[in-house]
Structures are given as structure tokens and as C-alpha cells.
Amino acid sequence: MIRTEKVPFIQSRAAVPVLLLTSVIMGVGLYLPSSTLGSAVGLVRVPAAFFSWLLVTLLAYGVLTQLVKTWYVRRFHAWL
Q: Tens digit of pLDDT for each residue in 31-43?
């Protein structure tokens, strides 16, 4: 989200290794609570309603980050 001043997923995409690693980590994070290892360390499965809130939170983060980034570039005429 903040690595470039371009709009993520539309004007700019991450490198394939970054996308693959992110997908693998997300998959492990989703699988771990329902695995035997997860239950052994006290993890529990989250209710399905959690994922709708997660999606809303992630979308809000993306929009807010893009708005602040746009404000910053307009204010200081440069990106980090």
C-alpha cells in the first residue's frame, strides 16, 4: 500500500515472489487455528462473521492509506 505513490492493484503490482509469499502466509494463518497444532497451543476457530468484519477493516485500511498518501504527495510534492 505505501511502497509507491501509485494506486495499488491498479497502477502498480507487487513482485510475484511477494504475492506468493503473502498468499502462503495468509493460507497458513487461516489453516492454523483449525489444525491440531493450533488446538495444542490454544487457538480456536473464529466464527464466519469474523471474515466479513475482516474484509471491511482491510478495505477501510486500504482506502484510508490511499487518501493519506494522496494528501502527503500533494502537500510535500514527493513520496517517501
A: 999 999 999 999 9
| Spatial CB neighbours of 26, under 8 Å, sequence gap ≥ 6 | none
pTM, to two decimals: 0.73
pLDDT (mean) for 19-41: 94
First to last CA, the chain: 13
Question: Mapped to the 3 state alphabet, what secondary structure does the chain carry?
Answer: CCCCCCCECCCECCCHHHHHHHHHHHHHHHHHHHCHHHHHCCCCCCCCHHHHHHHHHHHHHHHHHHHHHHHHHHHHCCCC
CA pair distance 19, 66, nearest whole angstrom? 19
